[in-house]
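seq:
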Amino acid sequence: MFIPFFLQLRDAKIPVTLREFLALLEGLEEGLADFDVEAFYFLARSALVKDERHIDRFDQVFSSYFRGVEAVSGAPGVDMAELPEEWLRKLVEKHLTDEEKKLVESLRGFEKLMETLKKRLEEQKGRHQGGSKWIGTGGTSPFGAYGYNPEGVRIGQKTSRHRRAVKVWDKREFRDFDDTVELGTRNIKIALKRLRRWVREGAAEEFDLPGTIRSTAEHGYLDVQTRPERRNAVKLLMFFDVGGSMDDHIRIVEELFSAARAEFRHMEHFYFHNCLYEGVWKENRRRSERIATTDLIRSYGSDYRVIFVGDASMSPCEITHPGGSVEHWNKEPGAAWMRRVTDHFRRCAWLNPVPDEHWRYTTSIGLMRQLMDERMYPLTLGGLEQATRVLTR
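struct:
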């Protein structure tokens, strides 16, 4: 089964020899990559690629040849009874070409999608695999897992594959951002310095050298003076979108989070997913312990600056429709909660890790920009400077 793979590598101008191919087969016979696709990838790359210039081409051929097949089913000497269940489940995943995807139609409309799902739940009696209608796996139905549909409800799938689900019925676990990340945070800290407003308050515990010199000169004896420590009086609330498409931007968001924690004494942070709704949370491993958004509005004064951090990339229904949230049934649309927060906190800004030249291609980004009164800025140093100018007015 690996001979076509070997020939494709040769066609891609990768100088693979028969001796290297035999070395790969020998490694497989020795059990160096039994039932482990990742181990097989590194074994194959080590055996077949002798020049780092060819690694990219090798990755492309490997991805193309083993696309959608993460098992060694059919290989000589492999007992099918020993194949892990996870590998067998992978075989039902639906992989379509771009042309085939264009032929799959969606139900067009959130209300129609929910109405059809309710009807399917009433009619369906058992498990279904493949096909384009029932709730199942590996098909083109709008409902199920490991298939493809341009707009649907994802049910029982471990991770996102196409990022097109309007709703997700699954337990989803995210992790908190790490505030100890230091790499790359220096420039972000410099940009955030615009939000500083120094005041001296509290106990007089800091040695005041100019005051001591002046008082000593006036009195003719050593008169030590102290003063309150100078602190940044700006109070900041940060709301972080976590999970889903934001997984692509974890590194830059962690750098921002780490820099903000270091710069602001009065900073509180909360997490949300895609759009702000009736509740947020402080720890992703304890998402069930939600804090009501109305309580935040009552607890924090309007003098707090507010920064939302997210890609604003979602189904427009999440912003405009009750029940549109991808994870739960929200009684009010996300737009209503965004307006409540921006009406209470006068100085708000949204930082978006998606490059601003791509914003016009995503409807939900345009809707969120309108709700923010165009106060959305790219998560770059230039965007940070623009946001801090708005927040200091």
